[in-house]
Amino acid sequence: MDISYTAIAHASGGGRDGHVRSDDDRIDFETRPPKELGGSGEGVNPEQLFAAAYSACYLGALHAAGKELGLDTKDASVSASVGIGKNDKGEGFAIAVELDIHAPHTEESRRQELAEKAHKICPYSNATRGNVDVKLTLVD
Question: Which residue among 67, 101, 131, 135 is buried most deeply as judged by most CB within 10 Å?
Answer without folding.
Answer: 101
